[in-house]
Design goal:
Elements (H helix, E strand, L loop, with lengths): L6 E6 L9 E6 L8 H10 L1 H12 L11 E5 L7 E6 L10 H17 L4 E4 L11 H14 L8 E6 L2 H11 L1
Helix pairs in contact: 3-4, 4-5
Amino acid sequence: MDHHGASLEAVEGDITTELVDAIVNAANSSLLGGGGVDGAIHRAAGPRLLAECRELRRTTYPHGLPVGEAVATRAGDLPARWVIHTVGPNRHAGQTDPALLASCFEASLREAVRVGARSIAFPAVSAGVFGWDAAEVARIAVTTVRASPHLEDLDLVRFVLFSPATHEAFIDALG
């Protein structure tokens, strides 16, 4: 590892099986599970994850987690130690500002470092049901992560993509 911090990579796979300190959940603001990656993470993590999320709703985020913010919980039955929940902008709801999407990646890195994680896996936040183009998500994700001051406190940032096309977009963005 050189002084520039984390290495970045993109793989095709299932983020719930990643052997990293923290995985990022593309959550909805309710924090109570949903479709896509969110549903898969909650199913694989089991009831303890949902219980922690309910507690967050009761205390810190009574109105839900705002778009572009991130919060860490423990990871229940997942191999990871932490789940970092972030709410991506929903293009279908008119949330088209790239800064909101960039904020998801930056806030997630900040949370990872805060809880002491050295490795983190991201999905393609906001691609899929939230309507963002995979290539745009990949470009924003890679640019934001590379510019992050938190990178020096991490060893590995891995983008774990469910589909071959999205994986390809991230490979291209990583250059």
